[in-house]
Design a protein that fits this description.
Blueprint lengths: L8 E9 L6 H18 L5 E8 L3 H9 L4 H19 L6 E4 L3 H16 L3 E11 L4 E2 L5 E4 L2 E4 L7 E10 L5 H10 L4 E2 L1 H12 L5 E2 L1 E2 L7 E2 L2 E6 L1 H6 L1 H4 L10 H9 L4 E5 L3 H14 L8 E4 L2 E3 L2 E2 L10 H8 L1 H11 L6 E2 L2 H31 L10 H19 L3 H22 L1 H4 L6 H22 L4 H10 L2 H4 L38
Parallel strand pairs: 1-2, 1-14, 2-3, 9-15, 14-15, 16-18
Antiparallel strand pairs: 4-5, 4-8, 6-7, 8-10, 11-13, 12-13, 16-17
The chain binds ligand ME8.
The site of ligand ME8 has 21 residues, from β1, α1, α7 and β14.
Length: about 525
């Protein structure tokens, strides 16, 4: 790992429980983080993108037991066979992958815990309360529903368990005012607004101290001064964002320098069900340690199945491969961010995905690319004519870049993608209006024909760069077919700030027919 001086833009996903294989809900967050990462890289920023797995606690321990394996063997197998390959398949460009069973994590967690104890934020006490193993959380009455005499967790719809233990406690209650001040002074640190309001009203109702250790099982990180107890899984897990970048290391060491370069995190992406952990407990832990709090926690909505949150425990999870086998990886990456406003729940439907694939990707985008390549081959022997301009297209492109950049930096992925696809539609309109196939019939129109072909190719150059973070592999194919690798350089090096500069493809670039970008779907899903 090379450590440069510049502060990196640091993006994280939740670390996922490895109680089973990933489903499209996990992929939703991780693709969003990947698009944000790639976009910021194309803004010329140094970006650090972290994902990983949450491997301790009762939930994982029980799933391993139910499968007749010891927990370490169970998590090793799932991480190697399911989680890491899944992110590779989806073309996720993470810089690091943290596992909470790694030594680099467990040691730093223990050191952090000891420092909080030394500064008086941790004390021993008795805990009695209701616990949901699915959430790995002590529940408040408002989080539960009574059914047939049993208290049921509203998220997992499973009965909670009574826990009575002598534990270590974190003085969470001391942080109500500092947290309220944080959100009053820096509302941008908890997004979207509805999520922040929920956190603020939760804080206003007061906080109780948090039990941060468990003594009735041993699948966790031992509390350093009391090895009969293991660290509460959420306390362990939240720290991953900081342990992965060298929390507490000597400032002169590699880890210490990495920490200075990355901390505080710029964006923690989370699903809305784990917002309180990230917007209440996590910043309080950091405040207690005298560390900066994250610049933004963004709680996105849920992918629903039959109106309910898709989940591993309810066995409603759809594997990403079930969709990518049919539609391809890039259509998958595109669809969820395009179809659902980030921050809002949305239902997945094969019909809707099929319709958008056909109209937006295959017709609007893919066809434009193949028509251009076919026409330059037919009318200009595959050689791009001299540089031309079209004031209307150029203006539209400049506005598109500004809109898309503003939206994506605000995590409005749908707004950003829509702006780019509007430009794509505008270019299709330009081709339809100019009718190059008619122009080609009369040699007198050749200058105009060349102009139209050049402008269309140039617009596709811009589209390839703008859509690259969402659909990297497809845009690389398009880039190649525009001869842009040779004439301009790798697509990943193209800066968003330069995209709108018209006339980058040089005269003479070789335009080749690529494979169809979005092939016709075999069977209607
Ligand atoms: O909560 N729709 O892990 P987890 C959208 N280990 N996103 C979804 C989703 C759905 N139906 N289902 C899951 C944990 N997700 C903890 C996190 S972080 C320090 C510890 C995504 O495996 C979403 O990002 O239950 C959600 O917050 C996360 O997966 C929960 O994953």
């Amino acid at each position: 790992m090379t450590v440069s001086e510049k502060k990196s833009f640091y993006v994280t996903t939740p670390i996922y429980y490895v109680n089973s294989a990933p489903h499209i809900g996990h992929a939703y967050t991780t693709v969003a983080g990947d698009v944000l990462t790639r976009w910021h890289r194309q803004k010329g920023e140094s970006v650090w993108y972290l994902t990983g797995t949450d491997e301790h606690g009762q939930k994982i321990m029980r799933s391993a037991q139910e499968n007749g394996e010891n927990p370490q063997a169970w998590v090793d197998r799932l991480v190697d066979n399911d989680w890491k390959p899944n992110w590779r398949d989806l073309n996720i460009a993470n810089d690091d992958f943290i596992r909470t069973t790694e030594k680099r994590h467990t040691e730093r967690v223990q050191r952090f815990l000891q420092s909080l104890k030394d500064s008086g934020y941790i004390y021993a006490g008795d805990y009695e309360g209701l616990y949901c193993v699915g959430c790995e959380e002590f529940k408040l009455p408002g989080d539960l529903t009574e059914r047939s005499g049993k208290q049921i967790c509203n998220i997992h719809e499973k009965p909670v368990e009574m826990v009575k233990e002598n534990n270590w406690f974190f003085k969470l209650s001391a942080f109500v005012d500092p947290l309220l001040k944080l959100y009053a002074e820096h509302p941008e640190t908890c997004q979207p607004e509805s999520a922040r309001n929920e956190v603020i009203s939760f804080l206003q109702s007061g906080l109780t101290d948090l039990s941060i250790s468990r003594s009735t099982f041993d699948w966790g990180i031992p509390v350093p001064w009391d090895t009969n107890q293991v660290v509460y899984v959420w306390f362990d897990a939240l720290l991953n964002y900081a342990t992965a970048v060298g929390l507490g290391d000597d400032p002169q060491s590699e880890g210490g320098k990495k920490f200075v370069q990355t901390w505080p995190a710029d964006v923690h992406l989370v699903g809305k069900e784990i917002l309180r952990f990230h917007a209440v407990i996590w910043p309080a832990m950091l405040m207690a340690a005298g560390l900066d709090t994250p610049k933004k926690v963004f709680a996105h909505g849920w992918l629903l199945v039959g109106g309910e949150k898709m989940s591993k425990s309810k066995l409603t999870g759809i594997a990403p491969r079930d969709i990518t086998d049919h539609f391809g990886v890039d259509a998958f990456r595109y669809y969820f961010l395009r179809a659902i406003p980030f921050g809002t729940d949305g239902s997945f439907s094969w019909e809707d995905m099929h319709a958008r694939y056909t109209s937006e990707l295959a017709n609007d985008f893919g066809n434009l690319a193949s028509r251009l390549a076919a026409m330059v081959n037919k009318y200009c022997d595959g050689v791009l004519p001299s540089v031309s301009h079209d004031a209307g297209l150029e203006r539209f492109l400049a506005e598109t870049v500004a809109k898309a950049d503003a939206a994506i930096c605000e995590l409005d992925f749908q707004g950003g993608i829509l702006a780019i696809m509007e430009f794509c539609k505008r270019v299709n309109g330009y081709v339809t209006e100019k009718e190059p196939w008619i122009l080609a019939k009369n040699p007198a129109n050749e200058p105009l024909l060349r102009e139209v072909l050049y402008n269309t190719a140039e617009a596709l150059r811009a589209l390839a760069v703008l859509l690259h973070s969402v659909m990297p592999a497809t845009c690389e194919i398009l880039w190649d077919s525009l001869g842009a690798n040779q004439s301009i350089g790798p697509i990943a090096d193209q800066l968003i700030s330069e995209v709108a500069k018209w006339g980058q493809l040089p005269q003479g670039a070789l335009i080749t027919k690529s494979a169809i970008l979005f092939p016709r779907l075999e069977v209607s899903a």
